[in-house]
Design a protein that fits this description.
The structure is a single chain. The chain is built from seven helices and six strands. The chain has 219 residues and is of the alpha/beta class. The protein is globular. The chain starts with a helix and ends with a helix.
């Protein structure tokens, strides 16, 4: 094998996360889930909201772009490594909407009940028999020196109506993951996103975090 081929076959070198970490979110539901995922690794996490950091404009074209924008802004402002998630629901027959606009569809008051009704209304207007959808989560860790680590996870499912369950947050009550009989809104935190041995890492966020943990937390 040539030197160049051997080099390309090497695993990428990831930076280890240690010490204090800023979770770049002002969303209490997302903050709770990210803290739960980080807790077994002994990471001290403080939120952007607790530090009084401003929320940057999410001007990216993809989930990954927006996660990077949030993580880099928090890292620059706090002078600490920062961890951000950008995630959302993509409905097949709606061309992937709301996608990166998932939070915006809920408006400034975070009215996800209204956002879920909006999706259901659009599906009925189209007489859509296809109710397939998926959640995507892009995670980014950014350091003040500009280094970033990025990971992405996805979970497929279908949309139900009416919404079921009051667990989780956002669009969880209408999302039924493939192979399951209960929506994310009906699942406990461990069932939805808990990593082994507590859970099976079902959610999009857990799947992305599993990749991050393998690369940056576990040695």
């Amino acid at each position: 094998m040539s030197r160049q081929a051997a080099k390309s076959a090497e695993k990428p070198v990831h930076r280890r996360i240690a010490g204090r970490l800023v979770i770049a979110t002002h969303n209490p539901g997302k903050l709770r889930e990210l803290r739960d995922l980080l807790a077994p690794h002994g990471i001290e996490a403080v939120s952007a909201g607790e530090l009084g950091l401003a929320e940057p404009d999410e001007t990216g074209a993809t989930f990954r772009d927006n996660a990077r924008i949030k993580a880099q802004a928090a890292a620059a402002a706090s002078k600490l490594p920062a961890f951000a998630d950008d995630s959302g629901l993509a409905v097949e027959v709606l061309g992937g909407e709301p996608g990166i606009h998932s939070a915006r569809w809920a408006g400034p008051d975070k009215n996800f009940a209204g956002a879920m009704q909006k999706i259901e209304t659009m599906l009925r207007e189209r007489n859509a028999a296809d109710r397939r959808a998926h959640f995507v989560s892009a995670l980014c860790v950014a350091w003040p020196d500009g280094h970033v680590e990025e990971f992405e996870g996805r979970v497929d499912g279908t949309l139900v109506w009416p919404p079921r369950g009051d667990q989780g947050f956002g669009y969880d009550p209408v999302f039924l993951p493939d192979g399951h009989s209960r929506t994310f809104g009906e699942m406990s935190a461990d069932e939805k996103h808990g990593l082994p041995p507590k859970g099976k890492g079902l959610s999009h966020r857990a799947r992305a975090f599993f990749k991050l943990a393998e690369a940056c937390l576990e040695r």
